[in-house]
Amino acid sequence: MNRILLPVLATLLLLAACGSSPTPQSDPAPTVDPVIEAIISQALADTFALDALRELCDEVGPRLAGSEGMRRAHAWGLRRLAEAGADTAWTEEVMAPRWERGVEWARLTHPYDTPLPMLGLGRSIGTDGVPLEAEVLAVSDWDELEARQDEVAGKIVLFDPPWVHYGANVQYRAHAASRAAEYGAVAALIRPAGFGQNTPHTGVMRYADDQPRIPSASLSSEGAALIHRLSDQGVKPRVALSMEAENFDDGPCANVLGDLRGRELPEEIVLIGGHLDAWDTGGGAHDDGGGCVIMVAALKVLNDLDLRPRRTIRVVLFTSEEYGGQGGDAYAEIHADEIDHHVLALESDAGCFAPSGFSVKADSLTITELAPFAAPLAGLGADNVYPGWAGVDIGPLVEQGVLGVGHRVHGEEYFRYHHAPSDVFEAVRPEDLAANVAAVAAFIYAVADYPHPLPQPKDD
Amino acid sequence: MNRILLPVLATLLLLAACGSSPTPQSDPAPTVDPVIEAIISQALADTFALDALRELCDEVGPRLAGSEGMRRAHAWGLRRLAEAGADTAWTEEVMAPRWERGVEWARLTHPYDTPLPMLGLGRSIGTDGVPLEAEVLAVSDWDELEARQDEVAGKIVLFDPPWVHYGANVQYRAHAASRAAEYGAVAALIRPAGFGQNTPHTGVMRYADDQPRIPSASLSSEGAALIHRLSDQGVKPRVALSMEAENFDDGPCANVLGDLRGRELPEEIVLIGGHLDAWDTGGGAHDDGGGCVIMVAALKVLNDLDLRPRRTIRVVLFTSEEYGGQGGDAYAEIHADEIDHHVLALESDAGCFAPSGFSVKADSLTITELAPFAAPLAGLGADNVYPGWAGVDIGPLVEQGVLGVGHRVHGEEYFRYHHAPSDVFEAVRPEDLAANVAAVAAFIYAVADYPHPLPQPKDD
User: Which of B85, B20, B2, B1 is closest to B373 using CA atoms?
Assistant: First the structure.
């Protein structure tokens, strides 16, 4: 396929940037860097990543921080890092929240009885083992809640905002419960921050300290729209909600790490990572099993080709991203002494669709300097380097000046799977997974083996 | 939009067929039959159908034959037929099975605990109020069941055949329970006869008289694949299944009918229909709320334009199609004396996507004779007339010689919604619904007003 052929012109940019080979000025047919070509070919041919993703999604399965599944994931990570050829692989303890969903359901009870697809929101309280049943007040947004605050007491408030984008809609997931509780609601439901086919989407919510804690759950977009339309028709819909959800004290969990020690500058670290924890409702394939697998498999590709770059490549599989980034915080704390040894941190946590490039949390000059490292990935469609988000888990490093890069994919369909039961193994296309491994392996090799100092964020 | 413009060339074919206007041989710009044009324009502009579908899906809601929802649907049908201008609207009692789903769930319990999206199959027994838990034997097809019959006793058998097409895969839905019970299975699960996003699909199953009755349910394709892959890895997956499903004695239900009496040949009946019952898991929008609404709305379009065709148009909203066609059987019995007065029967039960034409259960000469009636629908993309299926509910009429026609749509995505929780109001695109009303209204007007004897199936 055309997408997986390496355009020679793009390769020249890398060669020029790396200075590893003179540009053949006398010959108009440019040469292809055989190392980069080999990395990409190896990544596209290897089935390690696909099998590792299958195993993580199917056999490890659900893996919220602090759960039994997360402990299986630790073992998976250590074993897969060893198979990938890490010189060392280890875990680092992280104290993380623990929450269990238990059995849960919602039903429309008036004007008729029918099940409503739902998922309790992460860290929500439950209904104390007794179904909670009440009339539903459907509102479109915070403004309508404020305008109708006198109607809220004793009701379940449903927030059914139009879909804008994740960043906008996720505010309702985070704050619906406390905003509704302020006016006496007994529970909060949301249209999810995502879409699909009558698909609810979970995700973490947060209680305000100064409001009563009420149960909070996601319906599907269609379920929310049904209730909203019924309300608009003058029906007073009622819903029954049953949730066994329970919060526990923070407990020990772990990040999983593996180093491929650099051959010349081992103290300089190129960190690559994803988060190993995943919501308990599917396989966590796109979020973020794919990201973890890409990083481990990228290491394996370099090892399979006996490529040992100048700098150390460190894979970090973070825990507890979904509860708020406790794994990333812990990494920055544990490694506080060596943060300035981190020359770049790359996170993949935007789904495992076809690669598109890299978003960089830095000034425009640094981004321009970084672009040549991705240029050879044009054949994969992954050479787009632009300003943007790097990642939750590497956020604490980026805040302390580390160059933060986000692995980007064509994520138009991401919110069909994100935090939903549909985020299972077969939701990731094998060819996309392989292309992501190719893009990341080639990029980090170019970065980690670069014979000059790497671009670093400039002070403004 | 181009699709909803009436091509004048196609109209000429109808004019020629109907003999209502001479072809303007001297003018290369053909005229458009103003009546057909008006019917299509009226249908595309009217919002009656969309509101009726919303009301049926949202306010009537789930409506299995014999249920309280079906009684709401009877009232909806009578009222909407009256609004549409039927001269008379009435119900005719049908004895139909009654089955209730109750609360149900499935969980994978080994190698870890996680919910599995599921729907009990229609008319399955339940688990007697106690979850049933057993190891799962996953097989790909009947042949593998036979080959592994010695492994079945005491297990839940999962049938996970590759998706071929509905007609092939639905055999597993129908017969999985009894085939597995023959070798001592305690329950049967299926990969659904449909697809989606971790979506289970229900539908009727049948017990063989000579085998023990065991509970039977649909998983999602992804859930079935997960269990199958785990089995392939040597894991012995276990599933817990809880179903409150219960069968009751046949009870009274009803077809809902409405006549627009013909102005010249009232004793000749053009029957148009869909089925009013729907699975209890969504709104029954595509299956077959849309079909019912199309027929009622087509009647309204003719009335709005004061068009009263020569022959009687009879709308029949059948009950209990999903349980096996008891409504269609009852209609043929009740109207046994006038079956030879039915000059054509048109059913819409293939989803409510963009119209494509009409399939005809008749010889090729009759199909050729019928094609001109649909030719003016080329602008809607609905002029394709070809041999094929007519419909379950009109089947008994067709068997007795009535010309049977199926309303056809672009149904590539139908089995994403069919018998699934995703078959809700917004799964039908308003423009598709309107185009279907236009196509059916224009077609049945041309048929019912045709000044000559209508084409009839020839004896072979």
Answer: B20
- What pLDDT shows up at residue A458? 87
A240: left (phi over 0), alpha (psi -120 to 50) or beta: beta
Cα atoms in the Cβ-side hemisphere of radius 13 Å centred on B408: 23
Question: Helix, strand or coil for residue A335?
Answer: coil
- Closest-CA residue to A37 (of A447, A453, A378, A448): A378
Query: Omega of the bond prior to A111 within 30 degrees of 0, cis?
Result: yes
ipTM (interface predicted TM): 0.89
Pairwise CB contact (< 8 Å): A112 & B61: yes
pLDDT digits (tens, 9 = 90+) for B119-178: 999 999 999 979 999 999 999 999 999 999 999 999 999 999 999 999 999 999 999 999
Q: Tell me the whole-structure pTM to 2 decimals.
A: 0.91
The domain ranges of chain B are: 2-99+249-448, 102-244
> Tens digits of per-residue pLDDT, A136-151?
999 999 999 999 999 9
- Contact between chains at B422 and A197 (C-beta distance less than 8 A): yes
pLDDT band with cut points at 50, 70 and 90 for residue A294 = very high
Does domain A2-98+249-448 match CATH 3.30.70.1350? no
Nearest by CB to residue B199, choosing from A197, A235, A280, is A197
Peptide bond preceding B288 in cis form (omega within 30 of 0):
yes
Name every chain A residue with its beta carbon within 8 A of the beta carbon of B424: 198, 222, 226
Nearest-angstrom CA–CA distance, A442 and A434 = 12
Report the alpha-carbon distance of residue B270 to residue B406 in Å, rounded. Answer: 13
Determine the Cα–Cα distance for residues B227 and B241; give it in Å rounded to an integer. Answer: 14
CB atoms within 10 A of CB B363: 15
Mean pLDDT of B227-256: 97
Task: Phi first, then psi: give them for residue A388, nearest 5 degrees.
Answer: 170, -165
We find that the CATH architecture of domain B2-99+249-448 is: 3-Layer(aba) Sandwich (3.40)
A 10 A CB-CB count for A158 gives: 26
Give the type of residue at A402: V
List strand residue ranges (DSSP E) for B185-226, in order: 187-190, 216-219
Number of H helices, E strands in chain A: 12, 16
Share the mean pLDDT of chain B. 93
The alpha carbon of residue B226 is apart from the nearest alpha carbon of chain A, in Å, by 6
Domain B102-244, what architecture? 3-Layer(bba) Sandwich (3.50)
- At residue B460, the pLDDT reads 55
Work out the pLDDT band at B13, boundaries 50, 70, 90. Answer: very low
Using alpha carbons only, give the angle B304, B307, B310 rounded to the nearest 5 degrees: 150
Interchain contact B280–A (C-beta under 8 A): yes
Q: How far apart are CA B290 and CA B273, in angstroms?
A: 11
Give chain A's length: 460
Strand partners, B409: B355
CA distance A220 to chain B (A): 10
pLDDT of A20 above 60: no
* Active-site residue list of B: 321
Residue among B452, B380, B301 nearest B11 (CA)? B380
Tokens of A225: 């729209």
Pairing mode, strands A311-318 and A246-260: antiparallel
Per the CB < 8 Å rule, is B426 touching A222? yes
* Inter-chain CB proximity B112 and A283 less than 8 Å: no
